[in-house]
Amino acid sequence: MIQTIGDGLGDKTGARERIIFAAIGILEKDGARGITTRRIAAEAGVNTAAVNYYFGSKEELVRQVLSLTLSHGFADWIEVLEDRSLDAPSRLHAALSIMLEGIERNPGVVRAHMFESGVMEESRVALGGHLSSFLDAAATLLSPTGAPETDLRLRLGVAVLAVMSAGLMTEQVETVSPSGRQGIILALVEFVTGCRPTVSEELEARLAELRDTAFSSFQP
Q1: Confidence (pLDDT) at 5
Q2: Rounded-to-integer distance, Cα 32 and Cα 89, Å
Q3: What pLDDT digit, counting tens, does each position of 83-134 carry?
């Protein structure tokens, strides 16, 4: 769905991409405060001068990593909703499923965006902007009339927040929903669209394709 991180950036050795992947890994494990120039260099297999060469400073690297993780996630979810090979409830099921799995794979990154003290206010503002744009686009793509609907947008917002919460409390999901993740997603799709999709083999196969493509962007 999305070009790999280093595409079009003149990074012939892959150093820039390795630095970004290393920063994402540290962000996931230890939050933004765990990112230091020395640690990034060691984990990326570059010297410390390379970090400054490509990004100017550690702070700019953190800013770009936070921006990339936001933009990639929201872009993937929108592309799933644009897949007209599926009906609207199935598209929403696929998008929420991929959203939940992405958060479960990278809860530290999500926590850094939403809760970590010391993370730039700019990132939180960007998160709000991406979420607002996503809800506008999703409400249009899922509307039976083809026009955005206020109530649909509100229900979508509730669904996204519910998925974020579920993704950050993986161990408690079974307590919240005896039928597990699938039950949560199906309930949210019905809440938003009024319809509960049939999880057919065809939908599962298409979801597997979309999942592979969505997560391939952040595979080093």
Answers
A1: 44
A2: 36
A3: 888 889 999 999 999 999 888 888 888 888 888 776 667 777 888 899 999 9
In the chain, where does DSSP find H-type helix?
A: 15-30, 37-44, 48-55, 58-81, 88-105, 107-114, 121-142, 150-168, 173-176, 180-193, 201-216
- Burial class from Cβ neighbours inside 10 Å (0-12, 13-18, 19+) for residue 183 reads middle
Three-state secondary structure along 112-124?
A: HHHCCCCCCHHHH
In degrees rounded to 5, what are phi and psi of residue 65?
-65, -45
What sign results for the dihedral spanned by CA atoms 85, 86, 91, 95?
A: negative
For residues 135 and 218, give the distance between their C-alpha atoms in angstroms, rounded to a whole number. 24
Q: Do the beta carbons of residue 141 and residue 81 sit within 8 Å?
A: yes
User: Are the CB atoms for 155 and 98 separated by under 8 Å?
Assistant: no
The domain limits of the chain are 66-216
Q: Is the CA virtual torsion 85, 134, 211, 1 positive or negative?
A: positive
Question: pLDDT digits over 52-70, tens only?
Answer: 999 998 889 988 888 888 8
Counting Cβ atoms within 10 Å, is residue 35 exposed (0-12), middle (13-18) or buried (19+)? Answer: buried
Q: Is the dihedral of CA 169, 1, 65, 133 positive or negative?
A: negative
Contacts of 196 (CB under 8 A, 6+ apart): 89, 186, 189, 190
